[in-house]
Amino acid sequence: MTMKLTKDSISPYVIGTMRLGTWGSNLSTSEYENFIEGCLDLNLIDFDHADIYGHYTTEDDFGNVLKSRKDLRQKMRITTKCGIKLISENRPEHQIKSYDLTAKHIEASVEKSLASLQTDYLDVLLLHRPDYLFDPYEIADVFSKLKKEGKVLEFGVSNFSPSQFDVLNSLTPLVTNQVEISLLHRNAFEDGTLDQCQKLKIIPSAWSPLGGGLLFKESSDTKIKAIQSTLATLAKKYDAATDQILYAWLRKHPAGIIPVLGTSKIERIKAAQEALTIELTHEEWYMLWEAALGREID
Amino acid sequence: MTMKLTKDSISPYVIGTMRLGTWGSNLSTSEYENFIEGCLDLNLIDFDHADIYGHYTTEDDFGNVLKSRKDLRQKMRITTKCGIKLISENRPEHQIKSYDLTAKHIEASVEKSLASLQTDYLDVLLLHRPDYLFDPYEIADVFSKLKKEGKVLEFGVSNFSPSQFDVLNSLTPLVTNQVEISLLHRNAFEDGTLDQCQKLKIIPSAWSPLGGGLLFKESSDTKIKAIQSTLATLAKKYDAATDQILYAWLRKHPAGIIPVLGTSKIERIKAAQEALTIELTHEEWYMLWEAALGREID
Amino acid sequence: MTMKLTKDSISPYVIGTMRLGTWGSNLSTSEYENFIEGCLDLNLIDFDHADIYGHYTTEDDFGNVLKSRKDLRQKMRITTKCGIKLISENRPEHQIKSYDLTAKHIEASVEKSLASLQTDYLDVLLLHRPDYLFDPYEIADVFSKLKKEGKVLEFGVSNFSPSQFDVLNSLTPLVTNQVEISLLHRNAFEDGTLDQCQKLKIIPSAWSPLGGGLLFKESSDTKIKAIQSTLATLAKKYDAATDQILYAWLRKHPAGIIPVLGTSKIERIKAAQEALTIELTHEEWYMLWEAALGREID
């Protein structure tokens, strides 16, 4: 039995795995296991992978837990991504970094992810980047095949422009567009991405929702300092940490943006979960927007 | 009995009220009354307000005329706008300039505008700016409620991008997008705004149709000088004033752009009305475009 | 009998005529005849004109061949364009360079092109540039009239943005959008133009597919040098010339981009035809993209 991803069933946060392995915390198998159980205990059941994380090793790490803990698989939903080809010792055949959304690559990538993750099915497959050569008809066909075979339950994209999303979604239903959204990357608010999600009732998800590390270090940049000062005021008001305010800022948008959490620390995930009770006022949202903009709105 | 706003019934110009009160000419009540009667005599019956004009005082000024001249109300159509919150003595609760298109704010703003304007209904309500947090479903619901209650007859937006317009218009019919269009602000010709109006047969209206005061002052800017020189040639040919040529330039577009007049002088409004007979040739339109562009078209 | 242009029947290349006459090779009538026969022998039957080429003389040159070789007309398809008005000795009435997509100008231009080309019908009429004043309803009507009269069989546009294409195509079916696409002009890959073509199954065609002469001259520009070096590697691998690799690069896109060939030399056209057998790998396509981009993709 699977837990179908819908606008109502999705967790308020997705657990990003990018930095759990060799690209970050380098968790041991038992640490992964503890981390996964910690997330599930918090009722956060969506785990977000990509074939390339850890230079093609993080799916394997994660699969090593599932191998001996088959019970966990049914309690979670797994998203993974394909379509970026990295130059890597683990893919010696790659001569250059490229995108590849051919049916052949998508299918091969799904097979590899299934094997690495030690699972029979992916809950969601995302196309990681818009290959400039993507053929929406070919993709719709391979999605249909993968669905029929039970290998992938739902499909989505990442980093697609509204017109790229539109052409593919007109052929095969997409459940999300995972894009970079944060106080420091506000394009999605103005380039039609969130408008499209609202119109189609698609769930947007946000990678790098805290804007990278910049807001957490001392800075001489005027805008960063203004954001930090506003964050400090709000953190005090809500008796909260800075990251909690940033999650509340994203989640105030009516499209229902799902932040992808990048941490390997259960306490930060717990903090994120607790931040769900913070409701910024409209004016507070704009205080942060204007600090990031560096000026008053028009 | 109301005069429903349609593509056929709209006046060729809308009378802007932004600078009638404390943000400009500071008209007395009797001067307002004369001005309004002068406009109606010219068969210009659309008056364009916003809650914020005159720091939330211009609707009151206007309403003071309607209070003692109830006969005038039926001869005019009133548009007003909501959604910008200014820092103002008259709104001490505002801590920061922000946009707010929540149902709660829209409804409260309509109630205030009705009271200030001393009228039972608004002919048109425009959303003044796209709140980054706008929820099209919530807005469609409150529009429906306001319409059912007879408080607002038609709805539109201002300064919305094509994708913002699209998502809201897919849920509730919009009658206009009032955007900045002039020789000095030509984005609407190229960013899809006018294409969308033509496709949907929506009436675009243009704020700041003369481009602010820049074209009416001596300037050392090469492009401004080139525009002024072309305007002078055309003004001579058509025995017209500069502002008349600029209105004719806007009105040549087949979308039927309605300029919002910013003057409080009846003679300039009369002049605008007279400019309706000026028909620039295609080449003359491009002479002004290329002067503003600073080069030949491609 | 005409050969209807469809996605299946179109030649893999269109023969551009821009530089056959006074804007380039200045072919004599017999040279034109040889060139045309050479193209038809290669089964390349689409000839791409515009009223303005050679300052309004190239259609006449071409028509001089058809006058005495009526047999050739039935073996080819003729596209021509209208809508740009050049300052030219041959159009002394033009005071300024402008665009004009009024019905009146379109109709007059078609009549002139038919007379110049010495033919009864145009296979395809393209609107050369988006006149900022274009009225899609007026254009749809004149297209309908021209089609009914048998003067034009199909219609398309050139250099239209997706929203401009959309509004016109919603009223009258368009067969192509001819835009600038090459390694040095990559906008169409990202601005929605090719997405729209794929969604609507419209044939995109590419003017200046080799990017002008820049890639064929020594250059001190880092990106040009990087492209040239990658081209040299690929040319060696495929035993091909540089222009052949560039055509293969364009044709790899699944939208089926049709390059408009700009040469008057039959051997270069033969080479382009031979390039149809070159199939670049996905990685090779990205090697050229990244060389042109000046960096790795994200």
UniProtKB/TrEMBL annotation, chains A, B, C:
It comes from the Bacteria. This is NADP-dependent oxidoreductase domain-containing protein. Signal peptide: none annotated. GO terms for cellular component: cytosol. InterPro entries: AKR, AKR_Detox_Biosynth, NAD(P)_OxRdtase_dom_sf, NADP_OxRdtase_dom. GO terms for molecular function: oxidoreductase activity. Pfam families: Aldo_ket_red. Residues 14-288 form the NADP-dependent oxidoreductase domain.
